[in-house]
Design goal:
This protein is mainly α. It contains four helices and no strands.
Length: 73
């Protein structure tokens, strides 16, 4: 079987960013932005980035991240 897809209809993405999405990790504009985010989580005592999204313990951080990423909840 062979699939032919026009280039303009294909979706190209960064495999490493996609892995971050699947792992519910923050994708910053720059590596420095991501490091600052991880530092902020450490300062709050949060060891897993996904806890911000998956638990109800961090509503302020969840809202802050939604606005940082442009979704605005």
């Amino acid at each position: 079987m062979k699939l032919e897809v026009p280039v303009e209809a294909a979706v190209f993405f960064d495999m490493y960013d996609w892995n971050k999405i699947l792992s519910l990790k923050y994708i910053g504009e720059t590596e420095k932005d991501e490091q600052e985010f991880r530092k902020m989580l450490r300062d709050y005592g949060i060891t897993r980035e996904s806890d911000v999204v998956l638990t109800n313990f961090y509503p302020n951080l969840k809202l802050q991240e939604a606005y940082r990423q442009g979704s605005g909840l």
